[in-house]
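Practice problem: predict the structure.
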Amino acid sequence: MFSIGDLSRRTGVKVPTIRYYEQMGLISAPLRSEGNQRRYDSHGLQRLSFIRHSRELGFSIDDIRALIALNQHPQTPCGDAHEIAIRHLKDVRSRISRLRRLEQELKRLSQCDADTVEDCAILESLADHGLCSNEH
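Answer:
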């Protein structure tokens, strides 16, 4: 059995976040000791590790909830898990594309060689989106 502090140290998840996940139903409410301390078993540790890794990969809480539900039925085909992962991958690729456009625009803006704020292309472009070279 693990205290909430032990669980936090083993997973790298902060104690308030563990409590939050409990409130959201992502991890089961733990047993309580006679002193009313939370006591987690190895299943709680595994579940929290699953959640932490999923969050590190950028999955939303709703996706994690769905993945946990799928994980509770080991004999079920994993098509739904694939759909969740593929949808998330598409979202990540879209964000990467947007970030690349932002990078290009910021690189272009940073080449301003004005001597005064009055002639600053950076400030001028920020004031008028139409002066940007791409949609970002």
